[in-house]
Amino acid sequence: MAGETLGVIGTGRMGGPMAGRLLDAGYSLVIYDTQDEAMQPLLKRGAQQARSPADVASRAEIVLASLPTPDIVKAVALGSDGISSGNRVRIVVDLSTTGPGAAKLVAEGLKAKGMTLVDAPVSGGIKGAVNGTLAVMVSCPQATYDTVQPILKNFGKLFYTGDKPGVAQTAKLANNLMAAAALVITSEAVAMGVKGGVNAKVLIDIINASSGRNSASEDKFPRAVLPGTFDFGFATGLSYKDVRLCIDEAEAMGVPMVCGAVVRQMLAITNAKYGAASDFTSIAKVVEEWAGVQMRG
């Protein structure tokens, strides 16, 4: 309930705006991030700074984490001075994208300390985090879901995927694979159109009025590719990590990922060429270079 103190670990590009929405809703926050500057906007608004993840978990019964990689999530949750060393926390909400394997491991480690994991990856980017329009996929016991629902609804629309840890992660990886795939195929199609004499913006308008429309043609191209800014707000390294996780999990399940493997290769090339910190719309720059065109308009 509003007025309650919540813990937030990871106040960066996604965690920062989400924490801000919790302050807007009237919650008190205890926060921790390894980057001091990432905490400053929230501290100025009255959030309290903790010394470590364990300190956060000793000052709040519900702790939310928004972290970049599965290894960091595992270390923050279960490592020395991690959340599991806290003496007050009982529910840990992981908003990160870790894959089902890591989610299950973290859930087991927390359960041994009497804590419950809420597996709650989010989709919708920085814009969705700021505006509270994220898709939040949630797997945890029903009673725990009832407890955290009022908190999570501040972030956007909730999708309850059941009580098994890792199921929400599977849904998130499927979505992120498709988002990256849409960017790859749209880049190839528009590059062909431009080389054939079609104005890039006109072609995007045609696609968006036709059966080829997708998240890249409707959002990423108009916002970040056609203007040449390549600043959609999602890092190449994170997209590459998500797609690799997706392919690995699918292989372990016995699900073929023929198209997905190609998307992974395109992200590997983009990551190598432009770096992990580049925007994942840089995929279009790779295609532009290969095709000898520029997709602007």
UniProtKB/TrEMBL annotation:
Q: Where is the 6-phosphogluconate dehydrogenase NADP-binding domain?
A: 6-160
Which residues does the UniProt record annotate as the domain 3-hydroxyisobutyrate dehydrogenase-like NAD-binding? 166-286
Active site, UniProt feature:
K172
Record's InterPro entries? 6-PGluconate_DH-like_C_sf, 6PGD_dom2, 6PGDH_NADP-bd, HIBADH-like_NADP-bd, HIBADH-related, NAD(P)-bd_dom_sf
GO MF annotation terms: NAD binding; NADP binding; oxidoreductase activity, acting on the CH-OH group of donors, NAD or NADP as acceptor
* A Pfam family assignment: NAD_binding_2
Keywords (alphabetical) are: NAD, Oxidoreductase
SUPFAM superfamilies recorded for this chain?
Answer: 6-phosphogluconate dehydrogenase C-terminal domain-like (SSF48179), NAD(P)-binding Rossmann-fold domains (SSF51735)
Protein's UniProt name: Oxidoreductase
- List the source organism: Bradyrhizobium jicamae
